[in-house]
Write a structure and sequence with these properties.
It is built from 3 helices and 5 strands; from the N terminus they run βααββββα. The chain is an alpha+beta fold. The protein has a single domain, classed as Thiol Ester Dehydrase, Chain A, CATH 3.10.129.10. A hairpin with a 3-residue loop joins strand 3 and strand 4.
């Protein structure tokens, strides 16, 4: 599985406030896009995980805002796996515009089953290579 990935995101009009600035709540959505695209680039996807009985839930999220992003900005979101434990995956994010750091985020995810009981992170998610 990939441990780093970059996703390009363009700020859409509906994501901004009346000053044309990206609303703070959308940064967490962008982080989810980064995680999803990194998983997809690794050959996996959330639908497959759920079919196998694995669910990934956010247990902690944080974002440090450095500079504003504006409507129509083309951003690069760098997502990396910071740590994997037996039941948790931690990601870090760096949101950039033309080399300028706009925000830094961290999200911790727990792996659970359909009933919400903690499960081990699937082995294929811990591997360096995509699933076969």
């Amino acid at each position: 599985m990939l441990t780093e990935h970059t996703t390009r995101i363009r700020v859409r009009y509906q994501e901004t406030d009346s000053m044309g600035i990206l609303h703070h709540a959308h940064y967490l959505t962008y982080f989810e896009i980064g995680r999803t695209e990194m998983l997809r680039a690794s050959g996996g996807n959330y639908r497959r995980m759920e079919e196998e009985g694995f669910y990934i839930v956010v247990v902690k999220a944080e974002c440090r805002y450095k500079r504003p992003a504006y409507y129509d900005d083309l951003l690069n979101l760098h997502t990396c796996v910071a740590r994997i434990t037996s039941a948790k995956i931690e990601h870090e994010y760096h949101l950039m515009r033309d080399g300028e750091l706009l925000a830094v985020g961290k999200v911790a995810l727990a792996c659970v089953d359909r009933e919400g009981s903690v499960r081990r992170v699937p082995q294929w998610m811990q591997a360096e290579e995509p699933p076969g």
